[in-house]
Amino acid sequence: MELVCPAGTPAALRAAVDAGAHCIYCGFADETNARNFPGLNFSRAELAEAVGYAHARGAKVLVAINTFPTAGQEALWHSAVADAERAGADAVILADLGLLAYTAEHHPDLRRHLSVQAAAANPDAINFYASAFDVRRVVLPRVLSVEEIAAINKEIDVETEVFVFGGLCVMAEGRCSLSSYATGRSPNMNGVCSPPEHVDYATEGNESVARLGGFTIHRTPKGGAAPYPTLCKGCFTSGDKTGHVFEDAVSLDASALVPRLAQAGVTALKIEGRQRSKAYVAQIVRAFRAVTDALDEGRAPPALALARLSEGQAATTGAYAKTWR
Q1: Number of folded domains that form the chain
Q2: Closest Cα partner for 64 from 95, 86, 43, 107?
Q3: For the whole model, what pTM was predicted?
Q4: Which of 27, 47, 54, 222 is most exposed by smallest CB count within 10 Å?
Q5: 208 - beta bridge partners?
Q6: Are 224 and 281 members of one domain?
Q7: What's the rounded Cα separation, in Å, for the pair 59 and 51?
Q8: Domain extent for 140
């Protein structure tokens, strides 16, 4: 199985390659990718250099151009596709129908992968993208069980890629409007979810309060850990109960399910975390490379102990085992 790993900086890309990543995905430092945070991502020159570094060591580079273009500003997204091809990228990861059509027409030799942002979660949708735009791989949304993934793979002729570690998104991929509601900025259009310029921390009595766009997301005991205020992971009162209404503050860890995912026909395993450090990336890549190597060699994969690298030092298998409330 192929291991697809994140890189938010050139240093993280080199760390991922050196740790054994088969593929690295990254994006440009603008609104064309869904991790458009200050200090992250690549200039055009940095991408070209990174592609050279990866290719010299047998790794591939995939460029995420997976936001939805703003009407009248499509040129930014068109140039991103052209620049990715010029830099030697092995594929682009796209979500927008118009951008897929543009790329298929103007850059037919550039391999196209369908982003999780497209939320293609059934054979009919996936086969449409394959037929209309010659999409070669689809990144499946994080709302499917292993059994559902296996059923999908029986009815499609393209590769499938699934997330196995990192942050979770409980909303329909590419359709969430929570960040837009709270801050006016969206991961789907602007490439940022819960942008830092809208985050505020304060102390009220014996509590630390974290707010996003003026909305209180967390209250924790003063001096305790204050989670980053992402709205879907906030702690709210609903009726007579107070708790994590949308999602607990935990990370996805499907490492124990990798053999089942392989049996389900999955081609590639994806690690989330382009906003993470190069040290984090290197540790996760080495751990999962040991798993994929074991599978390739017919050995039982090692059990991974990754809790300390998970959000809140806790993890879940998410929808793969359908244990979400």
Answers
A1: 2
A2: 95
A3: 0.90
A4: 222
A5: 203, 220
A6: no
A7: 9
A8: 2-168+250-321
Distance CA 137, CA 60 (A): 14
**Distance (Å, rounded) from C-alpha 240 to C-alpha 238?**
6
Instruction: Give the annotated binding-site residues.
Output: 169, 176, 193, 232
Q: Which residue shows structure tokens 């819960």?
A: 194
Joined together, the tokens standing for residue 216 give 């209180």
Residues 75, 162: Cα–Cα separation, whole Å: 30
Mark 298-311 as b/e (b = at least 16 C-beta within 10 Å): eeebeebebeebbb
- 207 lies in the same domain as 291: no
Structure tokens at 144: 């499917």
pLDDT of residue 150: 98
Please check whether residues 215 and 275 belong to one and the same domain: no
**In the chain, helix, strand, coil percent, each to 5?**
35, 20, 40
Element (H, E) at 101: helix 97-106
Is position 131 within any domain? yes
Q: Which two tokens stand for residue 36?
A: 């458009």
State how far the Cα of 64 lies from the Cα of 25, in Å rounded to an integer: 7
Output the CA–CA distances (angstroms, integers) from residue 24 to 2, 50, 154, 171, in the order listed.
11, 10, 27, 25
Nearest residue to 217 via CA among 245, 187, 186, 188: 245
Closest CA to 21 of 35, 7, 36, 34: 7
Residue 154 corresponds to which amino acid?
K
| Binding-site entries for [4Fe-4S] cluster | 169, 176, 193, 232
Last residue of a domain, one of 227, 244, 261: 244
pLDDT in tens, 17-63: 999 999 999 999 999 998 888 889 999 999 999 999 999 999 999 99
